[in-house]
Amino acid sequence: MAVAPMDTIAPVQQSGHSAETGGSRRSRINGHLLRLPFYLLSLTMIVPFYWLVITVFKPPQELARTPPSFVPQSPTFDNFYDPDWTPKGINPGHLQGIFQRYQVDLGFWRFLLNSIVITTAITVVSLLICSLAAYVIAKHDIKGRRTIFLMIIASMMVPWQTTLIPNYVIMRNLGWLDSYAAYIIPALAKAFVLFFLVQFLQSIPNELIQAARVDGAGEWRIWWKIVLPLLRPALAAMSIFIVLAEWNNFLWPLIIVQSDEMANIPVALARLNSYFGGPDHQGAIMAGGLIASVPTIAFFLIFQKYFTRGIALSGLKG
């Protein structure tokens, strides 16, 4: 059998390698072109946040400059706290930082503390209540559970704005206005969270629950020892939605809050914007917005992997 010379084989191998390299290059280019709309969409979120950050570090003189600069020329931390500011206004060009503007205990930290307490309480309690309700609906053969579940799903179609006046009247009659109870109690019912957890529990075998009952475990112990650990990815995914919604909640707190001491961060920043107008004060307002955004960004980055896992295992994949 005749063997082909080496000089005839090498070009074939080289051409095949170049064809493979060219194909992979075209595939990468096509992939980038397909993702181009997402790149452009990301700019609509990145550019405003970038403008927020650079505004925080601009002095008042630079904030009033026309046209505006896209990079701080004289970076400063005075928008957080200006040590040269005096109540008598002796030093022109120096304004109150965000931590100097509120005449309440702890200053701006008070609103940050309010938001943390309210968001944490709503997230933890609502997840516990919804997980318990989801366990009953998904794993207990109770009469009318399908009707109850359909009614809960139907409540998701009702605009939440329609509940503002009834909830306000209830809070006023109970004497809960301007209190943590008015923040937390009406926000505990989360129909979408319940629906999500029910869908997730459908993937858990009923035999696991039955085995625990045979071993003598009570329903509370099954929920606490078995159901909650299995629900951990779904609970983490839902916690992101709840935290972001409650941390940025503005309309309901604006209605129930009467004093500055009980305001959360969105209400406090809105009042600050109404008290101090003009471009000179935008640095302090932006500083408050930057401080308010850091906890939510950190929370999402920490729980991002649980969020994707919860979505993948929830039964909502289609």
Q: How does this structure look, described?
A:
This protein has 318 residues and is an all-alpha fold. Helices cover 66% and strands 0% of the residues. The protein has 14 helices and no strands. The longest helix is centred in the middle third of the chain and has 32 residues, at 108-139. The model has no long low-confidence stretch (mean pLDDT 84).
Topology:
Blueprint: H1 6-34, H2 36-56, H3 60-63, H4 108-139, H5 145-155, H6 164-174, H7 180-184, H8 191-201, H9 206-214, H10 219-230, H11 232-247, H12 251-256, H13 265-275, H14 282-313
Helix pairs in contact: 2-14, 4-8, 4-11, 5-8, 11-14, 13-14
Average of per-residue pLDDT values: 84
Number of helices: 14
Largest sheet: none
Percent of residues in β-strands: under 5%
The ordered H/E elements are HHHHHHHHHHHHHH
User: What general form does the structure show?
Assistant: globular
**Cα radius of gyration in angstroms:** 28 Å
Uncertain stretches: none
The SS-based structural class is mainly alpha
Taking the alpha carbons of the first and last residues, their distance comes to 58 Å
The proportion of residues forming helix, as a percent range, comes to 55-70%
Oligomer: single chain
Number of strands: 0
